[in-house]
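Input (structure):
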């Protein structure tokens, strides 16, 4: 039985959080799920994001009345790399803040962050791209995922055996992920080149 890594990039953090909650409700252990969300301008304040997780769980319960949702209803503050990796109450309860060179500040949790921590990330976004490709993600797509995070997105990755691949992919697709091929073409048309991304400044949202 082969283990595969599935990935989905979301423009909206709330959509990604709902996908994570639904995946856990389907019985996938949070140790096999990871989330990395852009946190430029400190948009995700860990001490005040409880409502975001609770809302995600509520929406999943509304969609799947028969599913038991084991996801957390609260987040800790002052998280370190150790708490980012896991957390006993569901993946979103383990969110912590860190900075990925070339990507910028993020909030993150799960196995992918543990992989980055073990690799030391290094001085470039290549640590993130390398971790994704080592997990079986196409390298071209890995670069687009990294750039997507830098530009404000949220990446969800799931390790799953091939027997459940279709089920988990359907859950990821339910919450409006971006089309990775289309998004890559959009980045390239604006002048983006993967080989230059390590010198890019972290993306910041325009003032509202």
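Output (sequence):
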């Amino acid at each position: 039985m082969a283990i595969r890594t599935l990935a989905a990039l979301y423009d909206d953090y709330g959509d990604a959080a709902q996908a994570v909650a639904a995946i856990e409700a389907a019985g996938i252990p949070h140790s096999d799920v990871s989330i990395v969300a852009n946190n430029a301008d400190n948009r995700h304040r860990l001490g005040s994001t409880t409502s975001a997780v609770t809302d995600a769980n509520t929406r999943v319960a509304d969609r799947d009345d028969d599913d038991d949702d084991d996801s957390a209803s609260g987040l800790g503050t002052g998280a370190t790399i150790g708490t980012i990796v896991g957390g006993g109450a569901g993946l979103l309860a383990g969110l912590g803040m860190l900075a990925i060179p070339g990507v910028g500040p993020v909030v993150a949790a799960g196995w992918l962050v543990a992989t980055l921590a073990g690799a030391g990330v290094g001085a470039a976004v290549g640590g993130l791209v390398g971790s994704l490709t080592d997990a079986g993600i196409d390298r071209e797509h890995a670069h687009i995922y990294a750039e997507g995070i830098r530009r404000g997105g949220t990446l969800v990755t799931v390790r799953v055996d091939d027997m459940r691949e279709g089920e988990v992919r359907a859950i990821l697709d339910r919450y409006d992920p971006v089309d990775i091929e289309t998004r890559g073409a959009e980045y390239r048309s604006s002048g983006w080149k993967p080989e230059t991304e390590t010198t890019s400044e972290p993306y910041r949202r325009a003032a509202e």
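Notes: The first strand starts at residue 3 and ends at 10. The chain has one domain: 3-194.
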